[in-house]
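Colleagues,

For the teaching module next term, I've prepared a clean inverse folding example: a structure given as tokens, and then the sequence designed for it. I'd like students to try predicting residues themselves before seeing the answer, so please don't circulate the second half yet.
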């Protein structure tokens, strides 16, 4: 699986905007920092909608009073917590629905 880093995102933004990478790096860092802060401040739920991209949500889970520890089999209590969820927007969803071309690796 290929991993794309924040620096690579900044490079693509710089290329798209015709800017220097050090300029776009600041903007990319700022956007991710603000998104992270908004999601972290969720009390208990929040929704960030970015048109034509998708929706980031923080949702609250229900407490589980009868969960089981898989190692010991002991019944434990799992408190309610918050979790993140991403729902892609229509454009992204349509792109991801396209079939993958079968490429055979020939050595």
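(Answer key — instructors only)
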């Amino acid at each position: 699986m290929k991993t794309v880093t924040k620096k690579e995102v900044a490079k693509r933004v710089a290329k798209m905007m015709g800017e220097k990478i050090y300029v776009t790096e600041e903007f990319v860092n700022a956007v991710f920092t603000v998104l992270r802060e908004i999601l972290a401040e969720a009390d208990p739920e929040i929704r960030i909608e970015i048109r034509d991209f998708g929706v980031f949500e923080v949702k609250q889970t229900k407490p589980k009073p009868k969960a089981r520890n898989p190692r010991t089999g002991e019944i434990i209590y799992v408190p309610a917590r918050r979790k993140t969820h991403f729902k892609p927007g229509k454009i992204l969803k349509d792109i991801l629905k396209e079939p993958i071309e079968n490429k055979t690796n020939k050595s």
